[in-house]
Amino acid sequence: MAAMKFRNCFSIVLHLYFLDYFSSRSLTKLSIRRFMVKPFFLFFFLCVSSSTLLFGTVDSLVYSFSFSDTTRYDKTLSTDIDLKTQAGKILLASGDQKNLVTSARVYANYVGTLPPSNDPQKPDTTKMNPLYIKDNNYFSVVSFPTPNNIGSGIKFDLNGIRKVTKIIAVNLGNAPFSFNTRPIAFSYYAGIDSTRLGRIYQEFNNTDSSRHTAYISEPQPVQFLSFVIDKQDPRNATVISEFQIFGEGYVEEGTYVSAVDSVGIGNANFANTVIDADIVAGTYVSVEFRTGSKKNIDSLHWSNWSSPIFFHSRNEALAGSMVNVAEPRRFFQYRIKLYTTNLETPKVSGIKIVYQKNLVVDSATVFITPQDVPVLSPVMLTYTIQSSVSASSLGIDTIKIATPGPSVVRSVTLNGTAVQFSYIPAPDKMVIGFPQTLKSSGTVNVTFSTKMITGGSFPSVIISKSSPWNPQRLDPSVTAAGDGWLVNATGVPITPLVDVRIDPNPFTPNDDGKNDATIIDFSVANISSPKPLRISIMDLTGRKVRTLVDIRSGINPFFGDPRSGGKGFLWDGRDDNGKKLLPGLYIVQISLDVDNGGQVVTKSVVIAY
To answer: Is residue 372 a contact partner of residue 454, using CB atoms and an 8 Å limit?
Structure first.
């Protein structure tokens, strides 16, 4: 009875998972993962014994680490963290030992004459560069010519709320000879709002020849701070080479890098990670991973760091997220970053990583041919997966290939023999399912058609129905052109609007479920930055009856039915007021504003009933 109950529950979970997995919902990658994975975990967890792991099945394994062990981390790569103040927790380092200017945004503000140069019509811009006062170089300076720069100064955005306790202004060269270039009298203003700053310190007569240190007697929470010149030497410019700001609270960002660890003997397919952390408002945490086939890190045997996973609350961190790393691999390393925008710090106590030793395939690499195709021309590509399997391999039930644009699968072969498959079209991926599990070593070829508007990559994962919650990421082979899944689009489109089509044409918006709307397809190409894009519908008198699109667009393939996840534009035969238009001929005008005056493409479309 228990076994039957388990099987029935597991079947329901798989049905729910794949029903969602193959849907054409338009979601971000992160939200797709959460939408797909969490229901599966929840149902599975409830259906099996309490010893079964969240984020997995009974064959899941967990790496767990508590930060009470302060010996197992990379001290050379870790920065601005505190492992001592609260035992077993990672905190941000205290701000009183960190120059807050290094991570601040800095602006030079002139109300008078700009620094002179050899060209009297132009200022010396090198002496106006505010970045010089945070470069630790005492001979790169910001200069305010005398005598009419009273009220000029430097503005700081600390990128977070701090209690500033000490401010140091360093003169030219940090040396006695800079006495005549010192700010003679000045003030510091600060506040939470950049437009409402109050004076927190005033110096009436600065006699320090190399640097001036201001101690703030009553520190208040501030984010914006301004140094303002109140009096200048009548003969010499005021010259500042460095600023240093210290305060209560914590540094803006800190990084903890683990020591290299392993999953033991053999490789693993990494799944999910969970962070145990206290994350209060105004703070957040991110985690990144990299994996390797050998213990010593090098570019040949190790992947790059994965994209960071961000957690903005304790609940998010405990819910966890999928890990996207090169796999299967034996060795791994993780990097946790802590952030704050106020006087608090996140506190990280531990990390868990769920993985499997049961692999979809033991190893696999992919490459695509050809790697050079003509831009915006129909092409046929072959995606090749070279895999090695063993008796313990789970086998491939699904291949998911991310695509730069809409693509259509034409055939799939295993070692030269055609195999049955099902295919769900989507604008940014190909999801291919097999009724029979592929469990043979050798070559899987996926042939598909597409158009390339720019170069792009086709990363992929393979999935087993035994563990659909844990896709296995494939490795690209290395070719002369780079990663084997990279395709380059050669040639340059003559015009930015390419391959404009309207289909169906005519169409019949009579709500009978057949040809009730038409799809406007085209590509935007050959532009360097986003430009205004408009699609207007006009009648034969030239009167505009519908503004269908008014956006800014960069290079983009606007192809496919948006009702099923495509990126084309749909017109339902109605005007701007939602009223159905009369049957007849209408004009579709697509315009793109570009630097050379733009391009307008005009097409006709017929409404028929």
So the answer is: no
- Banded model confidence at residue 563, pLDDT cuts 50, 70, 90: confident
What's at 445, amino acid-wise? N
Does residue 54 lie in a domain region? no
Shared-domain flag, residues 7 and 105: no
CA dist., res. 297 & res. 300, Å (int): 9
pLDDT in tens, 417-460: 999 999 987 878 999 999 999 999 999 999 999 888 777 899 99
CA 371 to chain centre: 26
Cα angle, residue 38 at apex, residues 423 and 290 outer, rounded to 5°: 80
CB 30 within 8 A of CB 321: yes
For residue 34, give the H/E element and its range: helix 29-47
Query: Per DSSP, which regions of 125-220 are E strands?
Result: 142-144, 153-170, 185-191, 198-203, 211-215
In terms of phi and psi (left: phi > 0; alpha: psi -120 to 50; beta: otherwise), the region of 576 is alpha
Same domain, 87 and 223: no
169: left (phi over 0), alpha (psi -120 to 50) or beta: beta
- Whether 53 is covered by a domain: the verdict is no
Rounded to whole angstroms, the Cα distance separating 403 from 381 reads: 12
Q: How far apart are CA 522 and CA 429, in angstroms?
A: 19
What mean pLDDT do residues 251-277 have? 95
CA nearest 548: which of 514, 502, 510?
Answer: 502
For 289-324, the pLDDT digits (tens) are: 999 999 999 988 999 999 999 999 999 999 999 999
Chosen domain end from 356, 389, 408:
356
Residue at 607: amino acid letter: I
Q: Is the dihedral of CA 206, 212, 217, 222 positive or negative?
A: positive
Structural domain boundaries, residue 14: 2-47
Put simply, whether the predicted model's pTM sits higher than 0.90 gets the answer no
